[in-house]
Design goal:
391 residues, alpha+beta, Aminopeptidase, 2 domains, seven-stranded mixed sheet, 15 strands, 33% helix
């Protein structure tokens, strides 16, 4: 029997797992979910998922699943059913090309389109993850089939997996194909750094001078950086600034709701930071940082793009995430996939991840895989702003 035929038969027989699938994480066994996600990312835990459900983007329907082997829970799976149309594939205000106007698709996402990293699956301690991934594939199949009854679930996407996560063999058997993405940019934060001044002291003189100039230029423009604790009061302004950055993106499958960031602040308290650039009483920019164990996530950012020639808002806010990450006691800062050059100048190094994609029509997977496998992705520039250990 050929490998392709064997995989075809495997895809069409039950995996031996049992499932509880729900429209809300709170419809599932909370103790089971919390036990499975105890050591996982904060993005997989119930407080985050509740806020996401409460403030979900208009085109997103959250889903959650528990996978069982017998009566033992072996995996928790966070998913999203996402509607995509032509407006998500062009910059705001641009004319939609005729070729895109009829695009209407629904994607089942295993993971979270409002974050980056492996926020898809949490496994029980001690299980062989490669043996459970077929159960994840079956859970996604069940969600896709349910969506198909009420609409059209075209694609299933699993994001953002590392090459060493044990998923590859199982996902290939279920007709998923890997697509490399732009790298996540990560700054390592030594324990010896207790403040932003310690970070500055670690830089080569050229980079330190440039970093200091950002602060001086911001001050010369009459702007100051300060923490914002009441995000509810300024939610409308923060969302307006977020949209100025978000709308400039060529591809934007989801748009956060106005109350999303304030909900995060309320949910996570001192583990969430919002730093704003303010001139007088006016907020001209903001950046958020969320503590995720030993890692800080430089999360959403927004700024007045009309001021970018007047002052270095973006660079000042990017630097603020380092100060906030150090204050949160984190050992790494994850900055995401955009703006690779300025993040490399901060000292961020690329961490490669990939998504796995499957079309609902099996024969199309060869075509889709071939097309997406050749999609270009960004390469982080080679920068080393830090002094050597001998300095």
């Amino acid at each position: 029997m050929s490998r392709a035929l064997a995989w075809h038969k495997e895809r069409h027989r039950p995996t031996g797992f049992d499932f509880a699938i729900a429209d809300s994480v709170d419809y599932l066994d909370g103790a089971a979910w919390d036990g499975l996600t105890a050591g996982a990312s904060v993005f997989l835990k119930r407080p985050f998922l509740r806020n996401l459900e409460k403030h979900a983007p208009d085109n997103v329907r959250p889903r959650a699943a528990l996978i069982f082997k017998g009566r033992k829970p072996v995996a928790a799976v966070a998913m999203q059913s996402v509607g995509i149309n032509a407006s998500h594939l062009v910059r705001a205000g641009e004319k939609i090309p005729a070729a895109l106007r009829k695009i209407e698709a629904r994607v089942i996402v295993c993971g979270n389109l409002l974050s980056w990293g492996q926020h898809a699956v949490a496994f029980a301690p001690g299980v062989d993850q490669s043996e459970v991934w077929p159960g994840v594939a079956e859970a996604l199949y069940r969600v896709r089939r349910a969506e198909h009854l009420s609409g059209n679930a075209d694609f299933v996407m699993i994001k953002d997996l590392r090459a060493d996560d044990g998923a590859a063999g199982a996902l290939e058997r279920f007709s998923y194909g890997p697509v490399e993405t732009d790298p996540n940019m990560v700054v390592e934060l030594p324990a010896s750094w207790r403040s932003f001044d310690d970070y500055l002291a670690s830089l080569h003189s050229k980079y330190r001078k440039n970093a200091l100039r950002v602060g001086k230029d911001l001050a010369a423009a009459g702007c100051r950086l300060e923490p914002l604790t009441d995000l509810t009061r300024d939610a409308a302004r923060l969302h307006e600034l977020y949209l100025q950055v978000h709308d400039a993106a060529a591809v934007k499958p989801v748009t956060i709701a106005p109350g999303y960031l304030a909900g995060l602040a309320e949910t996570f308290g001192t583990d969430f930071r919002c730093t704003v650039a303010r001139r007088g009483s006016e907020i001209l920019g903001f950046v958020t940082t969320l503590k995720d164990g030993d890692e800080a996530v430089g999360y959403y950012i927004g700024f007045d793009r009309s001021k970018k020639e007047e002052m270095p808002l973006y660079f000042a806010l990017l630097q603020a995430t380092i100060a906030d990450a150090i204050a949160l006691g984190c050992r790494r800062l994850s900055l995401g996939r955009t703006a690779l050059e300025p993040k490399a100048k901060l000292g961020a190094l690329p961490v490669r991840t990939r998504i796995w994609l499957r079309h609902s029509a099996a024969p199309l997977n060869l075509i889709v895989g071939g097309l997406l496998g050749s999609v270009p992705h960004g390469e982080a520039p080679d920068r080393n702003p830090f002094k050597g250990p001998e300095a």
